[in-house]
TrEMBL record:
Belongs to the methyltransferase superfamily. This is eEF1A lysine and N-terminal methyltransferase. GO terms for biological process: methylation. It comes from Eulacestoma nigropectus (wattled ploughbill). One of its GO terms (cellular component) is cytoplasm. Keywords: Methyltransferase, Multifunctional enzyme, Transferase. The keyword Transferase applies. The keyword Cell membrane does not apply. The gene is Mettl13. One of its GO terms (molecular function) is methyltransferase activity.
Length: 685
């Protein structure tokens, strides 16, 4: 039995629908959206005394169910198929006396103007608007005009639809331009998701008198799990929001049937603000043998630790999932702009949503555990928010690390998953008292005392490697002696501070293009200037060029730790102009003959990285490289003379000698500063 049309145009043909319903017989045909799913939304917009028109009724049970539950009885159903109208008259005529079925074309209705309070359409618009040809659009315009004519002011056009992009766009644009209020509901699904994947939507178009001029459009979306609608600023944003829900439904369907070959990432947004609240990663571990209790688990990443390698990289999450011993692990990162009511609150908020991402084969009613480090959601306190014309929006935040340590971080919000600068706190009193004030949503004042910074501690592994590279300078027995060091890129100031404090005769010049960063480093990270530490607010390119022209060969070490503002390039540190050959030749010229140029390179583009390395080799005869484990960073040590080449044994001896000189009685020294270990993995390029 062939029920499908030969062409989309047959959906508008009475002959096709007569044949369809004769062949199908008495069985009700529901395009999508059964009554139990639609009822919670329909009852908000259909009142018992309303006069309701159902266009393109077919043999759906929707009108009958509405009648039977007392939602509304004065219902007129129309369709262009004589066969289905006869069928429905026989089926409902005697049992539902106030409801009628009429043979009528909705494009040319016989009803007087303003005759109905509600027009209900279940799939009819979708069936008519099969393409965007001129003839099709003309029919849709005629349909909308007739619906508008027969509706009273204040009446509602309720359209059940799959919300294909061109269908939704047409309906939203037409009625919003007519001055109607447009609201889109996502219908909660209770049907067989294996059979029907796409979510169903209900358009609610409320008729208002058109106001001359440019009255503001009222466009809203109401998602299945909430009652409060969200206002959208444009038709484009409304269509995009619906598209996001459709993509999410397809994703859930896909990963509920088959394991994920690659990690899946998605954001769950706050219902009121629309801003991301949770970032989820779905990680499957094929090596884990499934049993009843290890199918699925949720891992809440403590606040402030989402940038750590274990949680912030694909390989780290893969190892986390394997060590946890679950076939599918869903990691959940918490956003700094949001407020959370502890682990129990997060679990209550996420329990329903995360089950939509459950793996195939999960036993029915299986309890899914929520995991975390230490059993809590961590601690994060935003101490300061600011905006810089050069760096954009940024935050200074205090977080609790692994164990009892607390850290202060500088984050540029344009790249919010990267810690720009970090320092360990000595006295985190404000953080320790945060839990008592958790319900106080008032932001901390930027004038509060920032807390003591542990200036002896380097948090970043690449900073430790950069310091270790100073052992390449001259006679190791003379270190740490008088040194002239140029650091390009201030950040929080921890690298130049460490060089200044531990190399007690060093003169450190810092170049920073952004004056806002000097303020942040000074107030929030304990940075200070003095006789041996000077900051120059300048573009590093201009500053080095000026030095090369006026005072060459004056620095023992030049260190570049400067980020790129251009996120479209596959190299985030340094900006590409800093590794062009003419500029690198200027860097070489300001170095002393036995000096060292230390570069923090962060490059994900393999071809671009090879090009940078080739340029460095052209300029500097001697080039060492040190990869930072678990990170993209690679530290390059460049020397202007090939005569200084040293093997790994000599490098280790020089590093141990430098470490011994730096470790003085009464001066704190962390065990992780094993400079020889830092240079073990160094290789010559």
């Amino acid at each position: 039995m062939e029920l499908l049309p030969r062409s989309p145009g047959e959906f508008g043909s009475a002959r096709y629908w007569d044949r369809f319903f004769r062949q199908r017989g008495q069985r009700p045909f529901e395009w999508y959206g059964a009554f139990p799913e639609l009822c919670p939304v329909l009852h908000k917009y259909v009142r018992p005394r309303d006069k309701v028109l159902v266009v393109g009724c077919g043999n759906s049970e929707l009108s009958e169910r509405m009648y039977d539950v007392g939602m509304c009885e004065d219902i007129v159903n129309i369709d262009i198929s004589d066969a289905v109208i006869r069928q429905m008259q026989e089926r409902s005529g005697s049992t539902r006396p106030k409801m009628s079925y009429l043979l009528m074309d909705m494009l040319q209705m016989d009803f007087p103007d303003a005759h109905f309070q509600v027009v209900l359409d279940k799939g009819t618009l979708d069936a008519l608007l099969t393409d965007e040809e001129e003839a099709t659009i003309a029919k849709v315009d005629q349909m909308f005009a007739e619906i508008s004519r027969v509706l009273q002011v204040g009446g509602r056009y309720l359209c059940v639809s799959l919300a294909q992009a061109h269908v939704l766009k047409k309906a939203v644009e037409y009625f919003s331009q007519e001055g109607w209020v447009v609201r889109i509901h996502q219908v909660a699904s209770s049907g067989d998701k294996q059979q029907f994947v796409l979510p169903v939507f209900l358009y609610v178009m409320t008729k208002f008198r058109k106001i001359p001029g440019s009255a503001p459009q009222i466009l809203e979306i109401c998602l299945e799990e909430q009652d409060k609608p969200i206002r959208m600023e444009s038709a484009e944003r409304l269509v995009a929001a619906v598209k996001d829900r459709q993509h999410y439904a397809l994703l859930c369907s896909q990963i509920s049937k088959t394991p994920c070959r690659e990690q899946v990432s998605l954001d769950l947004c706050d219902k009121e603000s629309g801003k991301p609240r949770y970032t989820l990663h779905v990680v499957d571990s094929p090596s884990v043998k499934p049993s009843r209790d290890n199918h699925f688990a949720i891992f809440i990443i403590p606040q402030g630790r989402e940038t750590e390698w274990l949680f912030g990289t694909e390989e780290g999450r893969r190892q986390l999932a394997a060590s946890a011993g679950f076939g599918r692990l869903l990691t959940v990162a918490l956003h700094r702009e949001q407020h959370y009511e502890g682990m129990a609150g997060i679990q209550a908020e996420l329990s329903g949503k995360v089950m939509e991402l459950a793996p195939p084969g999960l036993p029915a009613r299986q309890q899914v555990p929520f995991l975390s480090v230490g059993g809590d959601i961590g601690v994060r306190m935003v101490q300061h928010c600011g905006t810089s014309p050069l760096s954009g929006e940024y935050v200074v935040e205090d977080v609790k690390g692994d164990g009892s340590c607390y850290f202060r971080r500088l984050i540029f919000l344009r790249n919010r998953n990267v810690v720009q600068s970090e320092a360990r706190l000595l006295a985190p009193t404000s953080l320790q008292g945060q839990k008592k004030r958790r319900k106080d949503k008032k932001k901390p004042s930027p004038t509060e005392p920032p807390g003591a910074i542990d200036k002896s501690y380097l948090c970043c592994e690449h900073h430790k490697a950069m310091v270790a590279g100073l052992c390449l300078l001259g006679d190791p027995d003379a270190l740490p002696g008088e040194l002239a060091v140029l650091v390009v890129g201030l950040g929080g100031g921890s690298l130049p501070l460490f060089v200044h404090d531990y190399f007690s005769q060093a003169r450190v010049a810092v170049v920073e293009i952004d004056p806002s960063m000097l303020e942040v480093a000074t107030y929030w990270f304990g940075f200070s200037q003095g006789d041996r530490m000077q900051v120059h607010i300048s573009d590093g390119l201009d500053y080095v060029a000026k030095l090369a022209a006026e005072a060459p060969a004056q620095y023992d070490a030049v260190m570049f730790d400067v980020d790129s503002k251009d996120l479209t390039v596959g190299m985030s540190c340094p900006p590409s102009a800093f590794v062009e050959k003419p500029f690198l030749q200027k860097v070489k010229s300001i170095l002393k003959p036995e000096g060292v140029f230390v570069l923090n390179l962060v490059c994900r583009d393999a071809r671009l990285k090879e090009s940078v390395l080739a340029t460095l080799r052209d300029v500097f005869p001697l080039l060492y490289a040190r990869r930072i484990e678990g990170e993209v960073n690679e530290i390059l040590f460049c020397q202007p003379s090939p005569e200084g080449q040293r093997d790994s044994a000599e490098l280790g001896a020089r590093a141990r000698a430098l470490e011994g000189a730096l470790r003085q009685p009464g001066r704190p020294w962390d065990s992780s500063y094993a400079l020889a270990d830092m240079l073990q993995a160094v290789h010559i390029l």
